[in-house]
Amino acid sequence: MPEFVDLLLPLGYRKAPQDFFSNCFYQQTRLSNNSHGLHVPERAWSGQDFQICYSLKSVERAEVQFEWPWSIDHYATQHVFDVRNVRSTWVVVKGSRILENRITSATSGHAPTEFSSYETVGKALSAALSTHLIMIDWSAENWRWYINFLEDRFQEISEGALSTDSDIPMSAKEIEDLFALRPRTNTQNTTPTRRPRVSSLRSAVQKANTMPSIAELAPPQQFQITKSGKKQPLPPGISIATPEVPESPGVRYDIYGQPTFRFRNLQDIQEFEESANDARLVLKLNMSICKQIADFYRSLFDNEELPRTVVDECQESMQRFERRVKGVMSHMESQILRVEGLLRLIADRKTLLYGLLEFQNTRSNKLLASESHKSTRRMEMVTHEMSLIARETKTETVSMKIITLVTLFFLPGTFVATLMSTDIIRWDSGTKDYQPGALHVYLLICLPFMAATFIFWGAYQWLERRKERHQQEKAEAEANST
What we know:
Structural class: alpha+beta
Strand content: 5-15%
Radius of gyration: 48 Å
Largest sheet: 4 strands, antiparallel
Low-confidence stretches: 178-232, 240-249
Distance between the termini: 67 Å
Strand order of the largest sheet: 1-2-3-4
Number of helices: 11
Oligomer: single chain
Shape: rod-shaped
Mean pLDDT: 77
């Protein structure tokens, strides 16, 4: 049949599957003398035959794939049955030898079996029906275990979504508002506080009664109580400390011992949803092909051109074939119901994960806002301190200006008085005595010290400017590199 080539096109290795869901069924019946096919006596072709070709899929173990040890495999088959010459021709194309081994095992042996009896047309037709059942049974195998694998992996990834407690306090203030501080002994001599009016307190206490005992948990965390300024533990029977729990794949825990989720979890669940959709579609296509095969053979048996002796001879085989096909279809339908239930669960869990991610985002934003508020308060305190420093600096600057003005006012008189107090000019009994040698010694000592002072100041300024220039060049280089 030319249509058989269409069934072979999806087979083979490709980077991405093409026509993967193209399960088809084709048939051609030529039993009358007016519509017979090619007659080739040398090849034992009488021309009175019927032909069918179809493709089915199933799921098989893929041991080389460690993370995903399952793969959906398919095959294509063509069957030509010559009614006059009692000749049955099979062409089965598949990537593994599993069907070949099963058919060979069923037809091998010295004694004729239902798969290898071709003495009459009826027995040959019964053998063809039994061979079809081998391939139909293969298409219904392993779906139960594959769906179990999907359910187990899905629960491992999303099981924390149901156990996450959204009432975990995020700050000491929320702890103080959520739980009533009960009187206890040796708690740093704190007095019992008033029970707050919180509607969720009763539910929180009821939930705490179902938690493990405190002896089984880690020591409770201490929280800062804002009103008293002291550290206060949680009430007895209520603790957010979590014992060491083995983490499931894809599940992380925060400081409160609650599972945290990332966008990657949604991607994994989306991958599971696509795999479940593929499984449902393949099962429905397989059911459709199985139904078409059974309907074809039923219409063939009802065909008046098929001899009644052949129909009567293999009537029992036909009934057994129909019962087996209905059983396989019933099994596939039950697996489809399981997949649809899993898909509904995945959709609900995705909605829950969206809410949890939004909740985590809100909680993170709240914590960031709290930290920003604290940072703003600290900046206000620093700004207030800087304002005080600026005021003090302004006051000191005014004082320094006054001191400078006073110094400049007395500086000329101080210089003249200092010069006249030396032995360079002496006033004795109304006579002036000028000593040029003393002036020479004074200048000889003073001028070098002045020059050394200016040189030291210039060198210090040059080193500081050079250091500042190097730091600026380094900063520019780092900025350019980033």
